[in-house]
C-alpha cells in the first residue's frame, strides 16, 4: 500500500513489480547496471520506472557489488587448484596405463594359449588323418584279398562241379572194331573157293548169234554170287549180335 502511495501516476506498478522480480534473480545480480537497464528498456519500461525499481532495492544491489569481489579466488589458490587437478590426472593416467598394460598382457597370454591349443588340435588332426589313411589302405588290401579269395573259391566250386558231373555219368565204353569168328572165316573162305572157278572162267568172244547163250551164263554166275553173299551175311550176323551183347 505504501508503494502505491509513493508511486506517481506515470509509473506502472505492475511493470515495476516485474522489474523488481527480475533484479532479485541471483543470475541477474552479478550483471552490470547497464545490461540490466538495457534489458528492462527492451521489455518496455521507461527510465523513471527503471529508476524507481532500483530505488526500491538499493541495499541488495550494493551488497551484491560488495560481495562479488570477495568470491573471486586469488592467484595462488588457482595455482594450487591446478596442481591438485594435475596430480589427480597423473594418478588416474598411471592407473589407466597399468590397467591397459595388464589387459594387454592378459590378452597376449590368452592369444598364446589359443595358438598353442590350435597347434595341438592341428597335430591331433594330422595324426588322425594318417591313422585313417592307414586304415583305408588296410581295408583296401583286405578287400582285394577277399576278392581274390572269392575268385579262388568260385574256381574251386566250378572244378568240383565238373568233377561231380563226370562221376555221375557212367564211363564211356571202349569201342572195339568188329571181328569175325574163326569158324565164320573158314565158312566164308570155303564159299569163295566154290565161287572162284565160275568167276575166273574166261568167256571167249562170240558173235551176235551167240549173245543169248552168253546172257544165260552171266545170269547163272550172278545167281551163284548172290547165294554166296547171302551165306556170308547169315554167318556174319550172329557174330555181330554176340559182340553187341558183350
TrEMBL record:
Annotated region (Disordered), positions in chain: 195-246
GO molecular function annotations of the record: signaling receptor binding
GO biological process: protein import into peroxisome matrix, docking
Low complexity: compositionally biased ranges: 235-246
Coiled-coil blocks: 108-135
Pfam families, per database record: Pex14_N
Domain of life: Eukaryota
Domain Peroxisome membrane anchor protein Pex14p N-terminal: 12-55
Keywords, alphabetical: Coiled coil, Membrane, Peroxisome, Protein transport, Translocation, Transport
GO cellular component term of the entry, any: peroxisomal importomer complex
Subcellular location field: Peroxisome membrane
UniProt function note: Component of the PEX13-PEX14 docking complex, a translocon channel that specifically mediates the import of peroxisomal cargo proteins bound to PEX5 receptor. The PEX13-PEX14 docking complex forms a large import pore which can be opened to a diameter of about 9 nm. Mechanistically, PEX5 receptor along with cargo proteins associates with the PEX14 subunit of the PEX13-PEX14 docking complex in the cytosol, leading to the insertion of the receptor into the organelle membrane with the concomitant translocation of the cargo into the peroxisome matrix.
Similarity annotation: Belongs to the peroxin-14 family.
Name used for this protein in its record: Peroxisomal membrane protein PEX14
Source species of the chain: Rotaria socialis
Amino acid at each position: 500500500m505504501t508503494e502505491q502511495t509513493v508511486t506517481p501516476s506515470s509509473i506502472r506498478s505492475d511493470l515495476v513489480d516485474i522489474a523488481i522480480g527480475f533484479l532479485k534473480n541471483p543470475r541477474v545480480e552479478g550483471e552490470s547496471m547497464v545490461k540490466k537497464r538495457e534489458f528492462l528498456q527492451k521489455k518496455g519500461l521507461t527510465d523513471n520506472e527503471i529508476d524507481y525499481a532500483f530505488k526500491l532495492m538499493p541495499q541488495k544491489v550494493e551488497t551484491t557489488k560488495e560481495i562479488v569481489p570477495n568470491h573471486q579466488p586469488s592467484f595462488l589458490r588457482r595455482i594450487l587448484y591446478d596442481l591438485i587437478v594435475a596430480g589427480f590426472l597423473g594418478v588416474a593416467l598411471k592407473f589407466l596405463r597399468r590397467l591397459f598394460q595388464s589387459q594387454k598382457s592378459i590378452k597376449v597370454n590368452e592369444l598364446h594359449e589359443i595358438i598353442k591349443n590350435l597347434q595341438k588340435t592341428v597335430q591331433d588332426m594330422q595324426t588322425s588323418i594318417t591313422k585313417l589313411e592307414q586304415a583305408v589302405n588296410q581295408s583296401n588290401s583286405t578287400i582285394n584279398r577277399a576278392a581274390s579269395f572269392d575268385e579262388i573259391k568260385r574256381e574251386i566250386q566250378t572244378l568240383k562241379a565238373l568233377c561231380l558231373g563226370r562221376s555221375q555219368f557212367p564211363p564211356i565204353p571202349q569201342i572195339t572194331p568188329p571181328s569175325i569168328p574163326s569158324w565164320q572165316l573158314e565158312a566164308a573162305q570155303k564159299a569163295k573157293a566154290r565161287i572162284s572157278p565160275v568167276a575166273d572162267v574166261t568167256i571167249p568172244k562170240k558173235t551176235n548169234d551167240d549173245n543169248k547163250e552168253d546172257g544165260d551164263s552171266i545170269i547163272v554166275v550172278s545167281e551163284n554170287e548172290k547165294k554166296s553173299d547171302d551165306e556170308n551175311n547169315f554167318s556174319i550176323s550172329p557174330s555181330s549180335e554176340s559182340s553187341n551183347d558183350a
